[in-house]
């Protein structure tokens, strides 16, 4: 799309919320690292141009302007919010989930603040739940009691000779491991926060018996160096409530060397994880946006759920590796080793108990 004027879509005033930047000095990431993290995420049209207003909505639109900052060389989770230009107004479209739209609005507002640009005109709309449900409903697989492995690192987890079948924003392949059919499911876009919960609900409806989520979490224990250990568990704190689920791994994963376990905390945005937040949750083990909603959805739908994640960063102590330098070669190499461990743990779990 060119930078030409169109009539900008408008929303009812009551549905439009103002996005305020976070207090940078209070965040668990150092300011220079935080800014680098934001620069990786913010659409190039925002970094390269000034706008009278920036409005974030829920929408999956690959016909809009694609950010030049999207990751390359990845099979999955490389798509980022797109943008439409309407004269001096910019409309940013993030995959429709309440957490993701809010998270991206915080990213934009904080980036503009840190780069000394006006932030007063950054607004967002929480997507209608029906829109979010419809987006999740685009997922269509023929499942019959399969184990579905969803998330990150699938290029290493799935059989190297397998063929990916593409759907609307996702791809999958199926393999038999120790007598059990396993479906590897990856999304081209982010399944941030509540979106991930809807994915589990959809998978259960389609016939999945178990879902395993592979991804990344932040550690709340200062002694855990990033990219050296794995995380698992069956409990998350979601909006102050304790959520538990039937764990696909049982005690198997936590008994493996280099696997840390504990109570997880669900946070809708990395930007909200400041030092006060850390003090409140210091007795817990990990944080990410998806595990809680996914576990809650599995509990509601009566299927088993498990997660086995790389501990990618540490909120309680500054280490050289964090969320601002995930694309560095040494980080990628360390995580590749950990993904292989995840692959081995899942295979051994299926060898012990295929069902």
Report on the architecture of this protein:
- With 355 residues, the chain is of the alpha/beta class.
- It has 2 domains: 13-130, no CATH class; 137-352, Nucleoside phosphorylase domain (Rossmann fold, 3-Layer(aba) Sandwich), CATH 3.40.50.
- 28% of the residues lie in helices and 24% in strands.
- The chain contains 9 helices and 19 strands.
- The chain has helices spanning 31-41, 44-48, 98-114, 129-136, 154-157, 194-206, 275-280, 291-301, 329-352, and strands at residues 16-18, 53-58, 82-86, 89-94, 122-125, 147-151, 165-166, 170-177, 180-187, 210-214, 216-219, 230-232, 235-238, 241-244, 259-261, 264-266, 286-288, 304-307, 309-314.
- It has an 8-stranded mixed beta sheet with strand order 14-13-16-17-11-19-12-15. A 6-stranded mixed beta sheet has the order 7-8-9-6-10-18.
- Strand 7 (165-166) and strand 8 form a beta hairpin.
- Residues 1-14 have low confidence and may be disordered.
CATH class bucket of the largest domain: Alpha Beta
Q: Determine the number of helices (DSSP H or I, runs of at least 4 residues).
A: 9
Number of strands: 19
Radius of gyration: 20 Å
Strand order, sheet with most strands: 14-13-16-17-11-19-12-15
Low-confidence stretches: 1-14
- Beginning-to-end CA distance, first to last residue: 50 Å
Query: In the CATH classification, which architecture of the largest domain applies?
Result: 3-Layer(aba) Sandwich
CATH topology of the largest domain: Rossmann fold
């Amino acid at each position: 799309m060119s930078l030409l004027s169109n009539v900008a879509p408008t929303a009812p005033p009551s549905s439009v919320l103002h996005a305020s930047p976070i207090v940078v000095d209070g965040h668990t990431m150092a300011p220079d690292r935080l800014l680098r993290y934001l620069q990786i995420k913010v659409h190039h049209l925002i970094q390269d141009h000034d706008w009278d207003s920036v409005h974030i909505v829920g929408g999956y639109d690959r016909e809009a302007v694609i950010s030049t900052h999207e990751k390359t060389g990845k099979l999955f989770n490389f798509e980022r919010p797109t943008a439409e230009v309407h004269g001096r107004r910019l409309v940013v479209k993030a995959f429709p989930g309440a957490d993701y739209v809010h998270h991206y609005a915080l990213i934009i507002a904080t980036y503009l603040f840190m780069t000394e640009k006006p932030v007063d005109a950054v607004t967002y709309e929480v997507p209608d739940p029906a829109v979010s449900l419809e987006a999740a409903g685009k997922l269509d697989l023929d499942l019959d009691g399969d184990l579905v492995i969803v998330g990150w690192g699938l290029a290493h987890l799935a059989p190297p000779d397998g063929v990916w079948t593409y759907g609307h924003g996702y791809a999958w392949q199926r393999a038999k491991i120790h007598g059990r059919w396993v479906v590897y499911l990856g999304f081209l876009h982010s399944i941030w926060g509540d979106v991930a919960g809807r994915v589990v609900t959809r998978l259960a409806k389609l016939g999945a018996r178990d879902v395993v989520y592979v991804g990344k979490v932040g550690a709340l224990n200062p002694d855990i160096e990033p990219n050296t250990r794995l995380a698992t568990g069956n409990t998350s704190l979601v909006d102050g409530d304790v959520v538990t689920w039937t764990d696909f791994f049982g005690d198997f994963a936590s008994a493996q060397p280099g696997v840390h376990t504990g109570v997880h905390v669900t946070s809708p945005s990395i930007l909200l994880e400041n030092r006060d937040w850390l003090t409140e949750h210091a007795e817990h083990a990990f944080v990410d946006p998806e595990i809680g909603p996914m576990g809650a959805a599995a509990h509601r739908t009566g299927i088993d759920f498990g997660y086995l994640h790389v501990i990618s960063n540490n909120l309680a102590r500054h280490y050289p590796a964090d969320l601002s330098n995930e694309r560095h070669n040494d980080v990628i190499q360390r995580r590749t080793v950990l993904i292989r461990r995840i692959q081995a743990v899942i295979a051994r779990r299926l060898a012990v108990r295929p069902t």
